[in-house]
Amino acid sequence: MTARKVAAGLFVSLDGVVEAPETWHFPYLNEEMGAAVGWANAALIEGDVIAAVKELKQQPGGTITLAGSPTGVLDLTYRPV
Q1: Which end of the chain is less congested by CB atoms within 10 angstroms, N or C?
Q2: What pTM, to 2 d.p., does this model score?
Q3: 47: left (phi over 0), alpha (psi -120 to 50) or beta
Q4: How far apart are alpha carbons 40 and 16 in whole angstroms?
């Protein structure tokens, strides 16, 4: 079995800011936007994210999407998953 891919996306303002999206992005989040970005089948991972993603990669399914966290993207980019 081939491991699933992890695709990362960030919330970025028009002027390139990725920090503190909760101050400018989430007031506009509703069900329509959640459906548009594919959050219908989303889960919040708490604790050891690297271990959780390693486990998810071994399960059948499509691409695993990480959204909204510059720190999470860096962790998954520079630490073996």
Answers
A1: N
A2: 0.61
A3: left
A4: 27
